[in-house]
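so my prof wants the structure for this chain in the tokens format not the other one, which i didnt know existed until like an hour ago. anyway here's the sequence
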Amino acid sequence: MLGELSTDQVEDLLKSQAIGRIGCHSDGITYIVPINYVYDGTFVYGHSAKGQKIDMMRKNPEICFQVDAIQNVVNWQSVIAWGKFEEIIDLHEKEQVMKKLINKIIPLITSETGHPSHGITENESDIGDGIELILYKIALNKKTGRFEKR
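here's what i got, hopefully its the right format
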């Protein structure tokens, strides 16, 4: 059976996952990239080093965000949301966002996967010394969800 996710199911899926995809567009180019994230019911929070994704979102802050929970090809849920990118500048807010990201991502890391190499640290006050770590939030303004269940 194919169907639409309820508002509560959309929110639950966004909150339960740790990896989503950002779609951004600028200068005639569309770019889709996976990110580690945390969702608090209002904002999707993410982090990145400076690069193509950040450059594009700075030029055009209107983005698309997508999350899946896939068991197999006939049992899945997917949410697509639209929103606006905003870079976080305030140091206190950066520390709070880093703490949220650490609390979401660190428990998912096993000894087999090791420590991520892209800015997540065990200390929320470490917001990046070796690279320019950019923290951002996306205010979602439209969400839709679909599922298939057999």
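also thought this was worth mentioning. The chain has a mean pLDDT of 90.
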